[in-house]
């Protein structure tokens, strides 16, 4: 059974943050002032492996990591993807469910301000853990005292 944040389940957030340390970030920007960059740098500093996904920067490096055009490209290059963190407009998220599943992810996280009912339903059907309209950096900071011994 897929769990969602719909019922404000802090256990779901903590479970994801404790167990999924390889995070593909769809929409990671090379621009330092962008939220995707700030959030990803924070998570990397906290000990998570960040895998940048952005076709604009494919082949370049962001945060010292090679950027891939797609999740499939990252998987083909041997990257382990457990969690997909999304910085894209809500209407662009439904196809990411199938892409995340194909890449081996167990969880899909839509950042603060990003929510989509179709994506939520597809994630449930695919068996993915699913979070929407929440910032992974904020949630990590909230549970930091429980997580610091995990990584």
Automatic annotation (TrEMBL):
SMART domains: CoA_binding
SUPFAM superfamilies registered for this protein in UniProt: NAD(P)-binding Rossmann-fold domains (SSF51735)
One Pfam family cited in the UniProt record for this chain: CoA_binding_2
Domain CoA-binding: 17-114
Highest taxon above the source species: Bacteria
UniProt-recorded name of the protein: CoA-binding protein
Species per Swiss-Prot/TrEMBL record: Dictyobacter vulcani
